[in-house]
Design brief:
heterodimer; A: alpha+beta; five-stranded antiparallel sheet; 3 helices; 39% strand; globular; B: alpha+beta; 2 helices
Chain lengths: 228, 100
């Protein structure tokens, strides 16, 4: 049975807290959804054949977290689980380095986590986030493929004298971590290697189809949806 | 970095009975710290400001020709949606050819 899903975003399109109402309806039938005040809304007609993969749920396994922790080594401590968000290409931090790399309406998945770095007494500790941007696509055979498109980090603290050594550690570890993230991605995509698809899109949050009302956060989870 | 300056300062600090003399260096800075009782000292030399953020694209990615379908909302313009003051909307089919 298809589902009409309407998402109401409180802060902006595909950002932050949102509510979703899922309304199943019969093939060839109709559905309506009423209410909801928000900054932006998205309505999606979701066929019964849709497969939705909750990214944050898939990532936060002990094995994956262990691999992520190896990226940091002794230079930093991970202070959150892995989070995922759908982001439009112009909102990716390295967009300005090559705007034509993707279409502006293309979405990437931002996989990120928070970190903490301790510093000597004359500096404040640093707290921030490390981000990897994943580009997923269907190849000519309809197989789901993906690659790590880039990385970024941002932190607060480290002043007045420690940002240099913090940047040295992050500039070495974060780009090198792309290979680890690619390995994690390849392992996940291998589970779908036997299937072919015609359509790929992202849904905010877990991608739940549970009928009725659900509240989630588009900044911390995104779902990959594919249709045969 | 000017390590000779640090060597001279370190010698002076030792003469003055400072202890816990510690040196950290990075690509663009060097820092020396020491203490003597309640007195604490820091010497920092840098040749540029370090921003607490970096971002870069992966240079090793598949050719665009390998991509048939990507996750997209065709025609969506994030910069207009971000303005928030005006109402916008667009609909469309999902099966869209990939790439410009």
């Amino acid at each position: 049975m298809p589902t009409l899903s309407q998402y109401w975003f409180q802060n902006g399109f595909f950002q932050g807290p949102f509510d979703v109402w899922n309304q199943p309806y019969p093939d060839g039938g109709w559905a309506w959804i009423s209410g909801g005040s928000c900054a932006a809304t998205l309505a999606w007609n979701r066929p019964d054949s849709e497969q939705a993969i909750d990214v944050a749920s898939e990532l936060n396994t002990p094995g994956t977290l262990s691999q992520i922790d190896n990226i940091l080594g002794n230079s930093a401590n991970r202070t959150s689980g892995l989070m995922a968000a759908g982001v439009f290409w112009p909102n990716v931090p390295y967009y300005s380095q090559n705007p034509g790399a993707h279409n502006n309406s293309d979405m990437l998945i931002r996989v990120y986590f928070n970190f903490h770095i301790g510093t000597p007494w004359y500096c404040s500790d640093a707290n921030g986030d490390i981000d990897y941007y994943i580009f997923l696509y269907l190849d000519g055979s309809g197989h789901l493929q993906g690659y790590v498109d880039g990385w970024s980090y941002h932190y607060d603290g480290g002043g007045p004298f420690c940002t240099g050594s913090i940047n040295d550690a992050l500039n070495a570890g974060v780009p090198a971590g792309m290979s680890t993230v690619q390995t994690i991605l390849d392992q996940a995509l291998a589970l779908l290697s036997g299937s072919t698809f015609s359509t790929l899109y992202y849904l905010p949050g877990s991608g739940t189809k549970a009928p009725g009302d659900t509240s989630e956060n588009a900044d911390t989870d995104v779902a990959i949806a594919v249709l045969p | 970095m000017n390590t000779k300056l640090f060597e001279r300062v370190e010698a002076i600090l030792k003469e003055e009975h400072f202890t816990h003399i510690t040196k950290y260096s990075s690509t663009h800075s060097a820092t020396l710290s020491a203490d003597k009782g309640a007195e604490r000292l820091v010497l920092h030399v840098t040749d540029r400001d370090e921003m607490p953020r970096q971002a870069a694209a992966n240079q090793d990615v598949p050719a665009a020709s390998e991509i048939r379908v990507s996750a997209t909302l065709a025609g969506f313009r994030p910069e207009l949606a971000a303005q928030g003051a005006q109402r916008l909307g667009q609909g469309g089919a999902l099966r869209k050819p990939r790439r410009k």
